[in-house]
Design a protein that fits this description.
The complex is a heterodimer. By secondary structure, chain A is an alpha/beta fold. Chain A is 44% helix and 15% strand. Chain A has 2 domains: 7-157 and 298-363, Rossmann fold, CATH 3.40.50.2300; 160-292 and 379-396, Response regulator (Rossmann fold, 3-Layer(aba) Sandwich), CATH 3.40.50.2300. In chain A, helix 8 (246-258) packs parallel to helix 9 and helix 11 crosses helix 12. By secondary structure, chain B is mainly α. Chain B is built from 16 helices and 2 strands. Classes of the chains: A alpha/beta, B mainly alpha.
């Protein structure tokens, strides 16, 4: 009985996949035979707590794929169109790996892009490595490229670098403004993301011999942050590093403003550099700083296309995923083949500086032996009138940092 | 006679599942889903030992599962130990935890027991997240990559060997469950389920019986945790000790199929896992949130139609025959 059910389930899935493929093909301007399109796997958290980030990422990838398709597809493959096979990774790594398996065996994807959250990417990489298909990612975790895997490519600075940069940039910015840091505060949500970011900050602070006058975890979904803010006030910290997703970041910044705390606030990416942060806080976001693995003001000519298309600025996860798509297209053009080994050879050796690959720091992407992008540099960004401005390191800065957090209206 | 017929049916099913991989792509998607079906059937069966027979609804079995996964993986990382050995450590630790938990929780009944076990699972999650030196912390932990095939290190180039390990485990766990259910211990557990005080009065050492069942259940769950780690190769505390991903799911598999029955977890897993996959592959792109919604609706509908699980539906269709057979099967082993 269970076998009967299973067989039926398999048949329906395949039929579903076929139908989806047909629809996608029909949507293209000109009729094509199946072999004239290249399947690219996209696995992202499209439901659950990370859904918004997943959707942003998908938008970035779709923007690039549509541009390529509208301009004649991939030349070296006879104008083949890019056919994105998008799937929901949910927030469960087991599901993410199953989805990857489904793509590799049913859709014959040439590469996989994804999956925003590090835990999902790590699970997917175990599948792609064994099937020898390139996996291109913008997840931060060091572990992704620490395991000696040969088929995974990480385009962003790794987590430990981000953590260290957050702290070091803060020290540098303070110095530039004639202040020397010796008392800092950390507050973070007690999730995987918050805990690991806080760990990086803590290590950097201890290394620099800076006093952690506050080091507080709080539960996800906190509704009253006033005890935290009171503690922050008493701690007499010079800088605060809050690590959180959206809702708690809104509460924290609002409470700080209400209590008139004006010390520099340096967020840990995630909730601090998305349009919702501005929407939720309005002018209160003014001069809030945050670390960011990429920034749209580094390549405005490209990222403005995203803004035109979707109506909000190109958030970093969209930008990095767009860059991944750009890298893959260049690799396919150079390889002139969809063979995994041929594509891998280009990924290993090429320097990607054309098209959307140029949207990353330095305008170039390359991958070292470990699969990391040595050109990726973490950036410090600051909110100015509803936009994010890169303020550090100096060579990438498009504006001067304001070393104090005051609301524009005050 | 009837009992022999049931045995033959299970035997036939086992042979069918043993032959199935021969016609499927050994690295394919179907194989992976089938592996998950077998894994969750075995988990449901292990859960059924305590949750089904004695009606001690545990919502914290992920604690044992995670201990098994972490123990073998950490020992492999640190000492290069084979997961077959590492899992023994995991099973022992899980049994130890079950023993410790038995002290405060065995006095509790119903919802209170469920809540206490739920807290135990959550506690393990928090410990694994914060004890970074041992567990690798919130980022998660990977099984050392080994590109070749090795039975000793439980790593293979395709999932076919994993499939057979899952299948054999499921058969053994099911046989064990059957044996316990139809044996003296099964009677004692069911006496506890009906009325714990009355069971105590007629001379059942309720604490001891519950403890033995819990230890077995915990150790088996830990072993399955190792098998999962060697199949998935990466896990993090939030997943492995997760409520939705494992604790509730293994209970759900048993409850939906038919709690306390031999066939329940098998049917439950064969229904839930493909169901979830179908929902994901249909709605995964177009309406991502809808997949879990549709899956939830189906679960609610099944429970509404069959409050006693899918097994009860067959029993109802076959009328009294099944009840008759079940009681006779019980009498065969006094």
């Amino acid at each position: 009985m269970s076998r009967m059910f299973w067989t039926r389930a398999g048949a329906v899935t395949r039929r579903g996949a076929l139908a989806a493929g047909t629809v996608a093909l029909a949507a293209l301007a000109t009729p094509l035979s199946a072999q004239e399109s290249v399947n690219v796997g996209v696995i992202l958290p499209l439901s659950g707590p990370n859904a918004q980030f997943g959707i942003n990422s998908r938008n970035g990838i779709e923007l690039v794929a549509n541009e390529i398709n509208e301009n004649g597809g991939i030349e070296a493959l006879g104008g083949a169109r890019i056919n994105l096979v998008v799937a929901d990774a949910t927030s469960n790594p087991t599901q993410a790996a199953t989805v990857a398996q489904r793509m590799l065996s049913q859709d014959e994807v040439v590469a996989v892009l994804g999956a925003f959250a590090s835990s999902l990417t790590l699970a997917i990489s175990e599948v792609t490595e064994r099937r020898q298909v390139p996996l291109l990612t913008m997840s931060f975790s060091d572990q992704i490229t620490d395991r000696g895997f040969e088929w995974v490519y990480q385009i962003v600075p790794v987590g430990s670098e981000l953590g260290r940069a957050t702290f070091d940039y803060a020290v540098a910015l303070a110095e530039a403004n004639g202040e020397s840091l010796d008392r800092v505060a950390i507050m973070y949500e007690d999730t995987a993301y918050g805990t690991s970011q806080a760990e990086g900050l803590r290590a950097a602070a201890q290394e620099a011999g800076v006093d952690l006058v506050m080091d507080e975890a709080y539960p996800l979904g906190i509704t009253d942050v006033s005890p935290l803010i009171n503690q922050l006030r008493r701690s007499d910290a010079q800088v605060v590093f809050p690590v959180s997703y959206l809702n708690d970041s809104l509460l924290i910044v609002r409470s700080m403003r209400q209590q008139g705390i004006e010390i520099p606030t340096i967020g840990g990416a995630a909730g601090y550099i998305i349009p919702d942060f501005r929407e939720g806080l309005g002018d209160l976001t003014e001069n809030v700083l945050s670390i960011s693995p990429a920034a749209y003001d580094q390549a405005p000519d490209l990222t403005d296309r995203f803004r035109e298309e979707y109506g909000y600025f190109m958030v970093h996860e969209a930008q990095e995923h767009a860059a991944l798509m750009g890298v893959l297209v260049s690799a396919l053009e150079a390889a002139g083949s969809t063979e995994a080994a041929a594509v891998k050879e280009q990924l290993d050796t090429m320097t990607f500086d054309e098209g959307w690959a140029a949207v990353m720091t330095g305008g170039e992407v390359e991958f070292d032996d470990q699969g990391r992008n040595p050109n990726a540099v973490p950036l410090m960004v600051q909110w100015r009138g509803g936009e994010l401005v890169t303020v550090w390191p100096e060579e990438y800065a498009t504006g001067e940092a304001v070393w104090k957090t005051t609301s524009a209206g005050e | 006679m009837a009992r022999r017929g049931t045995l033959a049916a299970y035997g036939g099913l086992a042979i069918l599942f043993a032959l199935l991989p021969l016609v499927l792509d050994p690295r394919g998607y179907e194989m992976r889903v089938l592996c998950l079906v077998l894994l969750f059937a075995a988990l449901g069966q292990a859960w059924n030992l305590v949750g089904g027979l004695a009606n001690q609804i545990s919502l914290g079995h992920a604690a044992y599962f995670g201990i098994g996964a972490y123990a073998s993986t950490i020992l492999q990382q640190v000492a290069g130990l084979s997961p077959w050995i590492g899992t023994l450590a995991g099973m022992a630790l899980a049994a130890l935890l079950a023993l410790l938990l038995s002290v405060p929780t065995f006095r509790l009944k119903g919802h209170y027991f469920a809540l206490a076990t739920l807290a135990a699972g959550e506690a393990m999650r928090v410990i694994a997240n914060s004890w970074s030196d041992l567990t690798g912390g919130p980022v998660g932990i990977s099984v050392p990559f080994n590109p070749g095939s090795s039975v000793w290190m439980m790593q293979f180039q395709t999932v076919r060997p994993n499939y057979y390990i899952f299948l054999v485990t499921l058969i053994l766990v099911t046989a064990l469950f059957w044996r316990i259910k139809t044996g003296a211990m099964g009677y004692r557990l069911r006496a506890i389920k009906e009325n714990e005080q009355a069971a105590e009065v007629i001379g059942v050492d309720t604490y001891r019986v519950k403890l033995v069942a819990s230890l077995l259940s915990a150790a088996i769950t830990a072993f399955l945790g190792t098998l999962y780690a060697q199949f998935q190769f990466f896990f993090d505390p939030d997943t492995i000790f997760g409520l939705a991903a494992f604790s509730v799911k293994m209970a759900l598999v048993a409850i939906l199929g038919g709690v306390g029955t031999v066939a329940g977890p098998l049917i439950g897993a064969a229904f839930i896992i493909p169901m979830e996959e179908l929902a994901n592959s249909y709605f995964g792109n177009s309406a991502a949130g809808l997949s879990q919604f549709a899956y939830g609706i189906v679960l609610v509908a099944v429970i509404l139609v069959n409050p006693y699980g899918i097994v009860a539906l067959f029993a109802r269709l076959r009328g009294g025959r099944r009840r008759d057979r079940a009681s006779r099967g019980g009498e065969a082993r006094p």
